[in-house]
């Protein structure tokens, strides 16, 4: 007899800035066996070569637990188009800076990213 309790399913957390219908659309874009631990409406900027910031996209950022990939990601979705606009895997030594309460920045695969 197995005494282990069944695994709990993590509930998706939407953004308070979205309607319930928009949050449900967002949850549908996450992928199979993925859950969003938090969500926020964001603009994504990248560091340009001339020491300025360039806007890359706008959308809904989610901190995602991706069970099939056994990893965590920040993914930004366009909820109208249903597309992933940006993705960053959170690896073991991943580091985030917050110079302001409304900005986070981190080193991306190629350049510094700002949410």
TrEMBL record:
Pfam families: WH1. This is WH1 domain-containing protein. It comes from the Eukaryota. InterPro entries: PH-like_dom_sf (IPR011993), WH1/EVH1_dom (IPR000697). It comes from Pleuronectes platessa. Residues 30-115 form the WH1 domain.
């Amino acid at each position: 007899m197995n005494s282990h309790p069944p695994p709990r399913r993590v509930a998706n957390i939407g953004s308070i800035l979205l309607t319930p219908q928009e949050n449900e659309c967002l949850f549908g874009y996450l992928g199979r066996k993925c859950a969003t631990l938090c969500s926020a409406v964001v603009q994504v900027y990248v560091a340009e070569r001339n020491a300025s910031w360039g806007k890359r996209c706008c959308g809904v950022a989610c901190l995602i637990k991706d069970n099939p990939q056994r990893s965590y990601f920040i993914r930004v979705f366009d909820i109208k188009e249903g597309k992933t606009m940006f993705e960053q895997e959170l690896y073991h030594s991943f580091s985030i800076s917050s110079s302001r309460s409304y900005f986070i920045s981190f080193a991306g695969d190629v350049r510094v990213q700002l949410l």
